[in-house]
Amino acid sequence: MIMIRSIVRPEKVDNVMAALMEAGFPGVTKISVVGRGKQRGIKIGEITYDEILKEQLITVVRKENKDFVISTVIKAARTGEKGAAGDGKIFVVPVLEAYTISSGMKEIPGGTIEEVDI
After folding, report:
1. 99 — phi, psi (to 5°)?
2. Which of 25, 45, 54, 86 could form an SS bridge with 20, CB 3.0 to 4.6 Å?
3. Rounded mean pLDDT of the chain?
4. Inter-axis angle of helices 13-22 and 66-77, nearest 10
5. What is the pLDDT of residues 21-39, one digit of tens each?
6. How big is the CA angle at 70 (ends 65 and 74), to the nearest 5 degrees?
7. Please, which residues have CB within 8 angstroms of residue 84's CB and are 6 or more apart in sequence?
8. How far is Cα 74 from Cα 86, in angstroms, rounded to an integer?
9. Full-prediction pTM beyond 0.70?
């Protein structure tokens, strides 16, 4: 399993969420965040804004779906055909285990599911 964390512009989040849903990946956690990237914020007149509003989308997918999901996010989040500074970033990390709270089931890579003693 792979966790994909996408940091995107707030005005692109609906596009990304819709694209993931349409692609068959409806499970997404959305968090409003602030930060800055390589551009070190944005300067408007004499004021520098170093905390830019963004949205973080988190989804966990099977390893074999990773490239497709990343491509889907990039296409939906990119500004224009070639993109622009500030469009965002995607981070990919392995997931060792996942637990479903309601059922107490544990899923490990490879799709193995087992009941957990509570």
Report:
1. -120, 135
2. 25
3. 89
4. 140
5. 999 999 999 999 988 777 6
6. 150
7. none
8. 13
9. yes
